Amino acid sequence: MSNARFREDAYLRDLSATVTGHTAEGGIVLDRTIFYPTGGGQPGDSGHLVWDGHRLEIATTVKGASGESVLVPAAPEALPQVGVKLMQHLDWERRHRHMRVHTALHLLSVVLPLPVTGGQIGAEKGRLDFMMPEPPEDREAVEAALNALVAADLPVSETWISQAELDGTPELVKTMSVSPPRSGGLIRLVQIGAGADRVDLQPCGGTHVARTGEIGGLRLGKIENKGKQNRRVNLHLI
To answer: Is the pLDDT confidence value at 1 over 60?
Structure first.
């Protein structure tokens, strides 16, 4: 598996790397990468690669057969050969918006503490699907609670537990449609707040901002009926 540097530091925008392989579909695998692959409702990163006077635009990133990041070129062009050293440059503005939306959706699951059946992250908005027979009675109160958590500027951090520890605390898993991310038998937990001020702790493999204040203002969007027991709640950056 590629060395997923985005898990160690979601704020890396540029990084040198060596090409270790190509996929049959024309994707590129690096020995270490800052490009997040599509997963958990978060889109794959885009950006570009530079080597020996060449520049290659990357349209998206997907997971390979072993979970590695596979960078997908925007157009069929000559690829850097295996062994070539290059620089990878992230489309930072797009990624950072994904980080803001993703962290905001964690806060939405705090304000609406219901089982999550699905979700999607975009650069402008995101949504969660909840097991929610009836919509919230007070939309304004939900929006105000979200923005209060943003204004509290809570720290966002991570920790790791074993599968056995997760099995002993199944209440940590909020999302029913996505399996908790594993790395070497360990489960990554994302925590919002600390100590007595902790508001959220759940398994997640995505990228997040360092503090909730970085999310900026939020607007509650449309709440859609998605079946007898499901409601889709949309959330927008403002």
So the answer is: no
pTM: 0.93
Query: Could you say which of 63, 90, 117 is where a domain stops?
Result: 90
Residue with the bigger pLDDT between 198 and 170: it is 198
Residues 114 and 13 in one domain: no
Mean pLDDT of 28-40: 96
Q: Are residues 114 and 205 in the same domain?
A: yes
Same domain assignment for residues 109 and 83: no
Beta partners for 61? Answer: 71
Q: Which helix (H) or strand (E) holds 99?
A: helix 92-111
Residue 148 CA to its chain's centroid (Å): 22
CATH number for position 8: 2.40.30.130
Backbone angles phi, psi at 190, to 5 degrees: -105, 130
* Helix (H) or strand (E) segment spanning residue 159: strand 156-162
As a whole number of angstroms, the distance between CA 218 and CA 234 comes to 11
In angstroms, rounded to a whole number, what is the distance separating the alpha carbons of residues 208 and 76?
32
